[in-house]
Amino acid sequence: MVRIALGVEYCGSQYEGWQTQPHGRTVQDVLQVAVSKIAGAPIELVCAGRTDTGVHASAQVVHFDAGVTRPTSAWVRGVNANLPDSVAVTWAREVGPDFHARFSAQTRMYRYLLLNRPVRPALLSRRVGWFHAPLNVDSMALAVRTILGEHDFSAFRAAGCQAKSPVRTMLRASVYRQQDWVIFDFEANAFLHHMIRNLVGALVFIGKGGGSPSTMATLLAQRDRTASPPTFSPDGLYLCGVTYPPGWNLPGDGRIIAPLFVPASD
Length: 266
Known about the structure:
CATH topology of the largest domain: Alpha-Beta Plaits
Number of domains: 2
Radius of gyration: 19 Å
């Protein structure tokens, strides 16, 4: 058996998340079918981070075991020839048998792209978030500093989250504006179900004047999801980076990052 790691990007708008479902309308389902055709046998994929319904990825990492040897190009161009336009393999590497896309990962990075203008997007519909009223990004930038470090993120955890612990370590968190765009960047050792969308919802609540920067610390301390602002739309959320220890024969020596293009505003 040979273990292969793949880099994958996808637009999640038409899929019901990453994880396989009986109806087959997930990213894992369509990718497994395509990889299995090249492998000549059923293949099961493991990913670095399961994305929710409507969430996108520019730097997902997956691995699988195959009983055949194929040229690296077959795992890229061959698989892509069997995929819908909304999913693409960007690279392939043979890795050691101890590599695990999920458990070997050290950090994950997500970016949320929010269009902040009175008129909703058309060309980028379902690919970016949108908020119509002006936002105070300075207040949001102060508020997001509260979540840096190790915390119990129960206030930002979905009711159905299956993680054994709500404690996570946030290594990087920032909010900034580029013209009509508000960009949220997060990097942590791992994330809880709906955690980023709940964080974005709280930050937008603060930005529109619903609270002060200190509101974020209050919500974090309360550890009560029902006391926090609503979950924000998945449309603008992208998995855009995963880091691994060096030595796995991965691009960037294990630092898999695909920065997102931020569209210019008129």
